[in-house]
């Protein structure tokens, strides 16, 4: 007994339907129960949902046999060294501003570690700096001059060399002249060398 054409159409609609993948926004073609367009998107969703669990598992595995892990990492790096260096060179050429900002942050963090001062959460500092850079101009904390955000520098109010923490509360926006002039001097010491004292 043959099915009515309309009934056949309803059956096919019940088993297949067009949907949007929540990860890549691509079209999901297949059964009505299918949620993701590919196995890659499914894995991405699983990682995002259980991120903490995966990170904890990775840390446990890393420290379980640290020497074996290090050997594997070295072997993998040597195997992909040429490819990685070529990719890194291209990426740095395309993202000069990001590289410069990363190097500045890393430099501040290294100095703070060497001086053994308090170090705040890097995400808090990054969020503060991103907020500053989102505007076209900024005011120098020291001379009150208006400076383009392309030329501003991040300065520690109490220098790290003098025990100041690497924290958002101790960071300020400075122009290049003020930052280089102040260097690692305290505010009182720096003002003695200026013609016009700052913030006194």
* Poorly predicted runs: 1-8, 10-14
> What is the name of the CATH topology of the domain at 96-195?
DNA Binding (I), subunit A
What proportion strand? 5-15%
Shape: elongated
Mean of the pLDDT scores?
81
Distance between the termini: 97 Å
CATH architecture of the domain at 96-195: Orthogonal Bundle
Write a structural description.
About 10% of the residues are buried. A two-stranded antiparallel sheet has the order 1-2. A two-stranded antiparallel sheet has the order 3-4. It has a domain at about 95-195: DNA Binding (I), subunit A. With about 200 residues, the chain is mainly α. The protein has helices spanning about 5-15, 40-50, 50-65, 65-80, 80-95, 95-115, 120-135, 175-180, 185-190, and strands at about 20, 25-30, 135-140, 145-150, 155, 170-175. It has nine helices and six strands.
Keywords:
two-stranded antiparallel ribbon; mainly alpha; disordered N terminus; 200 residues; DNA Binding (I), subunit A; single chain; 6 strands; 9 helices
Give a brief rundown of this model.
This protein is mainly alpha-helical and 200 residues long. 55% of the residues lie in helices and 9% in strands.
Question: How does the SSE layout of this entry go?
Answer:
Blueprint: H1 5-15, E1 19-20, E2 27-28, H2 39-49, H3 51-64, H4 66-79, H5 81-94, H6 96-115, H7 122-133, E3 137-139, E4 146-148, E5 153-156, E6 171-174, H8 176-182, H9 187-192
Antiparallel strand pairs: 1-2, 3-4, 5-6
């Amino acid at each position: 007994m043959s099915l009515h054409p309309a009934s056949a159409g309803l059956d096919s609609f019940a088993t297949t339907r067009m949907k949007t993948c929540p990860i890549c926004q691509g079209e999901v073609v297949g059964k009505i129960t299918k949620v993701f367009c590919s196995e890659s998107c499914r894995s991405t969703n699983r990682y995002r949902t259980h991120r903490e669990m995966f990170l904890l598992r990775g840390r446990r595995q890393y420290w379980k046999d640290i020497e074996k892990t290090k050997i594997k990492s070295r072997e993998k790096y040597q195997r992909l060294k040429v490819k990685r260096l070529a990719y890194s060179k291209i990426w740095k050429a395309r993202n000069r501003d990001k590289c410069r900002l990363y190097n500045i942050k890393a430099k501040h963090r290294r100095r703070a570690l060497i001086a053994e001062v308090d170090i705040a959460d890097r995400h808090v500092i990054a969020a503060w700096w991103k907020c500053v850079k989102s505007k076209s101009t900024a005011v120098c904390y020291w001379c009150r001059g208006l400076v383009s955000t392309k030329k501003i520098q991040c300065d520690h109010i109490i220098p790290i060399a003098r025990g100041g923490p690497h924290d958002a509360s101790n960071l300020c926006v400075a122009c290049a002249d003020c930052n280089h002039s102040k260097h690692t001097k305290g505010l009182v010491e720096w003002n003695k060398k200026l013609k016009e004292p700052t913030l006194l």
